[in-house]
Design a protein that fits this description.
InterPro entries: DHBP_synth_RibB-like_a/b_dom (IPR017945), DHBP_synthase_RibB (IPR000422), GTP_cyclohydro_II (IPR032677), RibA (IPR000926), RibA-like_sf (IPR036144), Riboflavin_synth_RibBA (IPR016299). Homodimer. With 409 residues, the chain is an alpha/beta fold. The protein is 33% helix and 21% strand. The strands form two sheets. It has a seven-stranded mixed beta sheet with strand order 4-5-3-6-2-1-7, sandwiched between helices. A hairpin with a 5-residue loop joins strand 9 and strand 10. The chain is elongated and about 75 Å long.
Length: 409
């Protein structure tokens, strides 16, 4: 039902509009989006005819500051946190400001690097929006999607957006599959914000190398490389043993380990994280060549420390680890491994022997361009505190833990 992100980027670069839909658990709406610098009266008129007519223009925060566009209100009470600014019209070259021709000029001016705060009158008929610096990787909204698409198309980071109204229900907004029919009728690409976020994780940097140091440990000596997240600022670390660039960086023994404060530091018996960490470091040291990528910010399969502890209470009252997450309105597993893939590429690793029981980790690494030559199990004896947890990971999350006895029929 959705088109490739590359098609949408090509259309944006050519000045064509596209339609971008967000998640079902968000607004579940589709916006017509096009690049502000390519705005024409015809494109604006088309957008007004098929939308709410409330045309917005998303620009980065720093550009809004440069143009003197402060937030519309001191306290933003919008349910999605949409960052509206004061409305504007072009100060010159327009009449009333409301026509498609006038709004197209204002939109182009918002994308013009030579424009200044004096280039606009306030209030006006175009609504600028402040986009988060990290784009859809920081906030999964149409505001950020429009800027990301313009930037990906090699244009100024300024995008125009407006919600598509429903022809089936004149009082409502268009949803899938009506958006698909609309795009087919008008020859437009249809993508999702989730698709765009995944495209960005593969094609744009998400981490940068920060510092290197020698790290002697009880497991052995490692060369440690720290990385900083470009979107969230989270710091990750890679422990490198031996020459991982040898043999063209192929078939390197690798463990991708998600931060677990309770297991890694306090030795919690409720999980097997700390034991897996130690066993993986032992194996890498024994192999003489390998990498452990320690991903911070992934506590509790990405839900965070406090929700994880709340999940423990729910488990003590009879829930399993899956239901304890969903009971809090949280995902079962929100982790993704684009940072790990980029760290491995930076280290010169081209394919990995993956220390993991989680097939999803393998799939995600390969989706981000790191081939997995083989899976190396990390199975450890269960204890009375974590046996039910491990069974749930096997039976409900697909983890490959063969050492556990089969579930009772």
């Amino acid at each position: 039902m959705l088109d490739p992100v590359e098609d949408a980027i090509t259309d944006i670069a050519a000045g064509k509009p596209v339609v971008v839909v967000d998640d079902e658990d968000r607004e579940n709406e589709g916006d017509i989006i096009f690049a502000a610098e390519m705005a024409t009266p015809e494109t604006v008129a088309f957008t007004v005819r098929h939308s709410s007519g409330y045309i917005c223009a998303a620009i980065p925060d720093d550009e809004a500051d440069r143009l003197g566009l402060p937030p519309m209100v001191a306290r933003n009470e919008d349910v999605r946190g949409t960052a509206y600014t004061v409305t504007v019209d072009a100060a010159e070259g327009i009449t009333t400001g409301i026509s498609a021709t006038d709004r197209a000029r204002t939109l182009r001016l918002l994308a013009d690097p030579t424009a200044t705060r004096e280039s606009f009158n306030r209030p006006g008929h175009v609504v600028p929006l402040r986009a988060k610096k990290g784009g859809v990787l920081q906030r999964g909204g149409h505001t950020e999607a429009s800027v990301d698409l313009a930037r990906a198309a090699g244009l100024r980071p300024a995008g125009v957006l407006c919600e598509v109204v429903s022809e089936d229900d004149p009082t409502g907004m268009a949803r899938l599959p009506e958006l698909r029919r609309f795009c087919d009728e008008h020859g437009l690409s249809l993508i999702s914000i989730e698709q765009l976020a995944e495209w960005r994780r593969v094609h744009t940097p998400v981490v940068t190398r920060s510092v290197e140091a020698r790290l002697p440990t009880r497991f052995g000596n490692f060369h440690t490389v720290a990385y900083s997240g470009l979107v969230d600022g989270v710091e990750h670390v890679a422990l490198v043993a031996g020459d991982v660039r040898a043999d063209n960086g192929e078939d390197v023994l690798v463990r991708i380990h998600s931060e677990c404060l309770t297991g890694d530091i306090f030795g919690s018996l409720r999980c097997d994280c700390g034991e897996q960490l130690a066993a993986s470091l032992d194996r890498i040291t024994e192999a003489g060549r390998g990498v452990l990528v320690y991903l911070r910010g992934q506590e509790g399969r990405g839900i965070g420390l406090v929700p994880k502890l709340k999940a423990y209470n729910l488990q003590d009252n009879g829930m399993d680890t899956v239901d304890a997450n969903t009971a809090q309105g949280l995902p079962v597993d929100s982790r993704e491994y684009s940072a790990a893939a980029q760290i491995l590429r930076d280290l010169g690793v081209t394919s990995v022997a993956l220390l993991s029981n989680n097939p999803g980790k393998r799939l995600d690494l390969e989706r981000h361009g790191i081939p997995v030559t083989r899976r190396v199990p990390v199975e450890l004896p269960a204890n009375p505190e974590n046996e039910a947890y491990l069974r749930t990971k096997r039976d409900r999350m697909g983890h490959q833990i063969d050492s556990l006895t089969p579930a009772a029929p």
